[in-house]
Each structure stands twice: as structure tokens, then as C-alpha cells.
């Protein structure tokens, strides 16, 4: 025991690693060294001393940090009235374009991700956009996509045989190898029951804004790029 130096040590302090023999000595060492007895989760551990227990401890520590950050993000007091006004303005601008834009409560992933903005000077939306290629299990996120850009131009860097990025092209090979007439762009119809999922077909030659008019969007548009010959259970509205 490093406190009384008489009895055989039975305990070791997680904080300062001092050995103690009894509860009395534990209390004495805490008082003498102003030690709280709680292990320092951020203390340096050399590679030679690093064990599976340290790894597990670090993993749990990161989980705690993530949980705390998520709880803080959900707390209503951290969001100013200005943010609420900005969202209300965004919804009103969308309504003026015949788009029903819905925003999720604080803490939802889509709410956190969304970077959609409205430029008052240009009188234009810059959309946060997600592209899903289900036949290749691939997803791509685009930020600040102008609403006057055509859907075909948005997809060119992904499925165009000539203009697409070589790495992306290789991953989406099944799309680039198929004729453009076989490519279909769909967007899920919101506010329907789970057993009645339907999709709207978008016109690739028209602008993103024209395609979004008359539709309900939750946070931001998600476009599903499919091949007509391969899509199975994706039923287009009205068919």
C-alpha cells in the first residue's frame, strides 16, 4: 500500500494508479493528492502499453462524445429565432415556386445535412441534392445545385460515357454502358403509406426547378437514377 506502507495492496486507483489496501487508505490518498478516483479517458497511452481494454475504452469514450453532441443538437435552446425565420423564409420561397418544402425537427440527419439556400439577389434556389444509383448501391451528395440547371447536366459527371469522372464511371459502369434512353430519373412521392410507395418520373431535359414544381419535398430532393430494364418494384405514379 502506497498510503500506509503496511498492508498488502488490494486496489489501484484508476486515476493516479496508486496502490491502496483498504477503503480508509483510498480515502486518505484521494484527500492527500486531490484525486477524484475517476480514470482520465484522454490520458496518453504509449503503443507498447496499449491493450484491447484501452481500445474498448476509447471506443466507448467516442460513443459518449457522439451521444452528448447529438443531445446538444436536439436541444431547442441552441437554435436561435433567426434560424427559424430563415427556414420559414425558405419554405415561403419554395411555396412561391409551387413546391411544398417540409423541414424536419432538430436532430434529424436530413435536417443536419441540408445545405439548401435561396439567393435573393439571383432569385434562385441552390439545392442540396442526393443522387441514388440503386443498381450499383451508390449514393452521391451534391451541394448548392442551381435550380435552373437541367437534370441531364446534373447527371453528366456520373453517367455520361465521355464527360463522367473516370473513377465514378467505373463504379457506375452499368449506367454508362446502357443507352441514355434506358435511363430513368425518379423521385419518391412523399406522404404515402409504406405499402403504397410510388415515384414521379422527372424530365431530364428540363430544369431542376421545373421538375420539382407541384411536388412535396422533405428537406431536399433525392433522385433515383434507374434503368428501365432493371427496376422491379419502383412503380411510377399513374402507371
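Q: What amino acid sequence fits the structure above?
A:
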Amino acid at each position: 500500500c502506497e498510503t500506509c506502507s503496511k498492508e498488502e495492496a488490494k486496489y489501484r486507483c484508476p486515476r493516479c494508479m496508486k496502490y491502496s489496501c483498504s477503503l480508509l487508505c483510498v480515502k486518505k490518498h484521494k484527500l492527500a493528492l486531490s484525486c477524484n478516483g475517476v480514470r482520465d479517458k484522454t490520458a496518453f497511452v504509449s503503443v507498447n502499453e496499449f491493450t484491447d481494454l484501452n481500445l474498448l475504452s476509447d471506443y466507448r469514450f467516442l460513443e459518449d462524445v457522439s451521444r452528448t453532441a447529438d443531445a446538444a443538437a436536439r436541444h431547442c435552446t441552441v437554435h436561435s429565432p433567426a434560424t427559424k425565420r430563415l427556414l420559414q423564409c425558405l419554405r415561403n420561397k419554395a411555396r412561391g415556386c409551387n413546391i411544398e418544402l417540409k423541414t424536419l425537427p432538430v436532430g434529424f440527419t436530413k435536417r443536419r445535412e441540408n445545405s439548401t439556400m435561396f439567393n435573393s439577389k439571383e432569385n434562385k434556389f441552390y439545392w442540396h441534392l442526393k443522387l441514388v444509383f440503386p443498381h450499383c448501391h451508390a449514393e452521391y451528395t451534391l451541394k448548392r445545385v442551381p435550380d435552373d440547371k437541367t437534370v441531364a447536366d446534373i447527371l453528366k459527371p456520373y453517367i455520361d460515357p465521355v464527360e463522367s469522372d473516370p473513377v465514378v464511371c467505373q463504379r457506375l459502369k452499368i449506367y454508362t454502358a446502357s443507352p441514355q434512353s434506358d435511363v430513368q430519373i425518379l423521385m419518391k412521392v412523399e406522404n404515402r403509406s409504406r405499402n403504397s410507395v410510388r415515384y414521379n418520373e422527372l424530365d431530364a431535359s428540363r430544369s431542376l426547378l421545373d421538375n420539382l414544381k407541384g411536388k412535396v419535398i422533405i428537406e431536399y430532393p433525392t433522385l433515383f437514377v434507374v434503368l428501365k430494364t432493371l427496376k422491379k418494384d419502383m412503380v411510377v405514379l399513374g402507371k
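Q: And what stands out in the fold?
A: The chain has a mean pLDDT of 85.
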